[in-house]
Structure formats: C-alpha cells, structure tokens
Write a structure and sequence with these properties.
346 residues; mainly alpha; Flavocytochrome B2, Chain A, domain 1; four-stranded mixed beta sheet; 55% helix; iron ion binding; transmembrane; oxidoreductase; Fatty acid 2-hydroxylase; fatty acid 2-hydroxylase activity
C-alpha cells in the first residue's frame, strides 16, 4: 500500500493494512500517525509503541502526562485523519472536548537554530541567555541524527566532535584493569576490596556533583556567549538532542584531561599504596556509568535497571532541574533533588 499523506482520511481497514505491512501506525485524538522511524529512538523503548500499533493511544498518552515535547515529535509523524464510524463516537467526543495538540500551535524553535547547518555557531551568534536555556531544555527528538543534526558545518570538526560509545570501552578498559592489577600487589585482600568499594561510592558522588554543578551550570552561569557555547559543547547539546548516539558518552580526549586532574588530586590525598587500586575502581565505575548512560538512551533495558532509565528520561523530558544521579538516586535524596516521579512511588 502506498504511503498516505497528512491530508488524507484513513479508515480502520486501511490502518490495519498498514499495520500488517509492518508500519507502526497509531491513533491519537482522531489523527493517524506513523511511528515506525520513531520506534528505535523512543525514550521508553519500542515496546511502548508496539503495544498500540493499529490502536488508539489517546487515553494512555494522557495518563502518562506526556509533555509538549512529545506532542511536537508526534506532529511530525502525522499521515492522515481517522475516518470515524458510529463505534468511534466516544473517541470523537473526546477529541472535540480535549485536544492537547492545541498546546503547541505556533511553537517553532527552528526560527533561530537550524540543526542541519551546525548548531554550535548558531548558539554562539543567535541565542541570548534566556533563549539558550529554553533551547537546551526543550529536547529535539531525532530519528536520523546524522542527517538531521550537526554541531559544525566544517566536516573535519564535525567528524572529531562525534564519540561512538565503544571508544570509551576500548580506551579506558586497559588502563582501569592495569591500575587494578598494580594495586593488587600493594594492599591486603580486605584493603583492596574496601578501596574499590570506596572508589565506587566516590564516583557516584562525583557523578552527581559534576552533573549538577558543572554540566548544568546554565542555572548559575553569567550571560556570556562564550560560556554558553562552552556549556553547549559539554552538555547542553545532550539535553537539546538527547537521542543523538554520538553525543552521549564523554569524549576520550576531554576525559583524559579530567583523568589527569583527578589523578593529581589523589596523589596529594591518598597514601601511595592506595592510589592504583582507587584509580582503577574509580575509572571502572566511570566506564560503567558512561556506557550505562548510553544503554539507557538506546535500549529497552532489563527489568533490573528499567527504573533507572525511566528516572533519567524524566530528568531529560520533564524536570532537568532535578534528578542528577544516573547510576543511583542516593545523592538526589540526600541533597533534595530527587525527581517527583520517585517521590510519588514512595
């Protein structure tokens, strides 16, 4: 069957035919959407779309309290309007009385930034402080990141701005294992294990502090175009385009600089016999965090970590001013930045 256009009226029979042909067709507020290309990058995973293929998802969309961001994504997927029958009268009445799509009428964030032309320079030249904060905290969802968004118009800069997730594993794993191997000769077994445990706990605090006070410095940084651009490169881009797979893990070059700073501090804080083990444990914890971060964004996670994905997605799509812990919510609870979704479940 040929693809329909957004102006066509689709019957239930036509919707079922498209669904059986492998298209992820869903109905929302009496309109018909093709979410096929969106399945792989849906923040909650493809299952949440698969469960409603060929069906009306209006009620569950309301229940899950989706934001305007989700409405914008949905708007781009429209392929037609549902042809109502007598059995659809209840749904039709609901659409007439309550249309969430009206919430995004006239909203066009692309007026000042075109993601296909290199966003870094446009952020530097086109956005003031308030516009920048609004831009990065309004996630733009990409179904084809390489085609829909670039950081730099210069192809060389653009190439080196991308960091595939496996770079982190390939570069840091040998260093972390070597440090742990060295440390195994310097401490007793109990001291060795306790030092690794201390390093893991230390990393979770460092993760929280870096995320809250450095990566989210937009809440306190002065109105300065250079600072805005620096922040955008470090973390703003991730909040603006959270599903871009090459902007998720920390670049290895910048990570190596941070590693040198941390290592310098450890040399002046810890006994010499403890440094290798602590450094190895800390680095391994960082790797698991960064790779886990990628996993949360681009997978349907195992049940054991499903809540961590939901927690982090809530931070991105609903409350960027809270929920700074990714590996754990412990420090969010301690410092009063726990997300409302967590508080409601208690």
């Amino acid at each position: 069957m040929e693809n329909k256009t957004s102006s066509e009226v689709l019957s239930r029979t036509e919707i079922n035919q498209l669904s059986r042909a492998g298209r992820a067709i869903v109905i929302f507020e009496g309109e018909v959407y093709d979410a096929t290309d969106f399945k792989g990058t849906h923040p909650g995973g493809p299952k949440f779309i698969d469960d409603y293929v060929g069906k009306d998802m209006t009620e569950v969309f309301y229940e899950e309290e989706h934001t305007k961001i989700a409405l914008r994504m949905l708007k781009d997927m429209k392929i037609g309007t549902l042809e109502f029958s007598n059995s659809d009268q209840v749904s039709q009445d609901t659409v007439t009385s309550h249309s969430r799509m009206e919430e995004i009428e006239g909203e066009e964030w692309r007026k000042k930034v075109n993601p296909k032309l290199g966003t870094v320079w446009q952020v530097f030249t086109n956005l003031d402080h308030e516009e920048y904060n609004s831009f990065i905290n309004d996630p733009k969802h990409l179904t084809r990141p390489g085609d829909e968004h670039i950081m730099f118009a210069n192809p060389v800069l653009e190439f080196f701005s991308r960091t595939p997730w496996y770079h982190v594993a390939l570069f840091w794993t040998p260093i972390a294992l070597y440090k742990l191997y060295q440390g195994s000769f310097e401490l007793s077994l109990l001291e060795y294990l306790m030092t690794i445990l201390f390093a893991i706990v230390s990393w979770t605090f460092a993760e929280y502090a870096l995320h809250r006070f450095i990566f989210h410095m937009e809440v306190w940084m002065p109105d300065n175009a250079y600072l805005r651009t620096l922040h955008y490169i470090f973390h703003g881009i991730h909040h603006s385009f959270p599903m871009d797979p090459d902007r998720l893990v920390f670049p290895v070059t910048l990570g190596f600089i941070a590693w040198q700073i941390f290592h310098f501090a450890w040399v002046h804080i810890f006994p010499a016999c403890m440094i290798n083990t602590y450094a190895g444990g800390f680095l391994m914890s960082y790797m698991l965090y960064d790779l886990g971060h990628y996993y949360f964004h681009h997978s349907q996670p195992l049940k054991i970590v499903e809540y961590r994905k939901k927690y982090h997605m809530y931070h991105h799509y609903k409350d960027p001013d809270n929920g700074y812990g990714i590996s754990t919510s412990f420090w969010d609870q301690i410092f009063g930045t726990e997300l409302n979704m967590a508080k409601k479940q208690k």
